[in-house]
Amino acid sequence: MSVPVAAAASPSRPLLAHRRSPPPPPSRVAATSRRPLRSVPRLLVSSPTPHAAAMATDGAAPEGEAGSKRKLLVFDSKEDLAVSLAKYTADLSEKFAAERGAFTVVLSGGSLVNSLRKLTEPPYLDSVDWSKWHVFWVDERVVPKDHEDSNYKLALDGLLAKVPIPTGQVYAINDALSAEGAADDYETCLKQLVKNGVIAMSQSTGFPRFDVMLLGMGPDGHIASLFPGHPLVNENQRWVTYIKDSPKPPPERITFTFPVINSSAYVAMVVTGAGKAGAVQKALSDKQTSSDLLPVEMAVLQDGEFTWFTDKPAVSMLQNK
Predict the structure, then answer these.
(1) Cα separation of 259 and 51, whole Å?
(2) Tens digit of pLDDT for each residue in 37-56?
(3) Minimal CB count within 10 Å: which of 88, 119, 233, 288?
(4) Using one digit for the tens of pLDDT, what is the confidence trace for 43-100?
(5) How far is CA 109 from the centre of its chain?
(6) Which residues does residue 307 pair with via DSSP β-bridges, in sequence order?
(7) How far apart are the C-alpha atoms of 315 and 293, rounded to whole Å?
(8) 103: alpha, beta or left, given left = phi > 0 and alpha = psi -120 to 50?
(9) Contacts of 70 (CB under 8 A, 6+ apart)
(10) Which H or E run includes 151?
(11) What is the b/e burial string over 201-217, where b = at least 16 CB atoms within 10 angstroms of the residue's CB?
């Protein structure tokens, strides 16, 4: 069973916990076909302002209403982006803590954690109700928790060790298992948390509905460990799956699937730098086609709000930037 890992725990000695046998898997609803691109909501492009984060959290379609919203925020600097992303995340924390009594946060690896650094500083260090946070990973490398390639270690060093999230509410993979075993174990953990009411369930998709996913994108347009042209982008039954032939090392990973990503209430896609401008252009161009979709283009929320947090180099190839 995937076990909660304390932020302050030694990564080389994962905590062990005993859980009751998980309930029978909830009935799965096959993921609906990807929406045709013409149905994707038109991007709302916002100029960078001190209130950009507040704009990003207003007016998401509530659960049960058809459609989703997309917004593009472009910042003058990575520092401005980090300030706005912290406010965006803190506002959502307050919203879901009040509405649900819990705030489920999904992290990715890469530069995303560094972009969250403002959460570890005043005013958020003291004002955020960290006791309501439950932290997950959209993907993880199947390596020991103290390995330099571990997304858990990246988040521990950059965020989790600096904020008082309760010990049992940080859910790392079981790094003693194989890739396949770790994926099965993590999915079982998620199902138990759905049963316990920690994770919400999407009534429209039949998949777990996380409050927010804070994601990054690779230069090739991959998100999570879902890579261009790989068969896993078509997985529509599993919540969590595994990959043994990742085109980016290390080769063995686990990853959330698109039906789970696309059932989220909110997604923040944090993309900076000129090296990703080509993928950003393809994802946000008005001339999108349904052929050869990048994984980031397949992230289309069923009922939620998708916000791009970018800097000027990342959108430098967009004609209407």
Answers:
(1) 31
(2) 323 333 555 444 333 433 33
(3) 288
(4) 555 444 333 433 333 333 233 334 678 999 999 999 999 999 999 999 999 999 999 9
(5) 10
(6) 71, 268
(7) 19
(8) beta
(9) 40, 41, 42, 43, 44, 305, 306, 307, 308
(10) helix 151-158
(11) bbeebbbbbbbbbbbbb
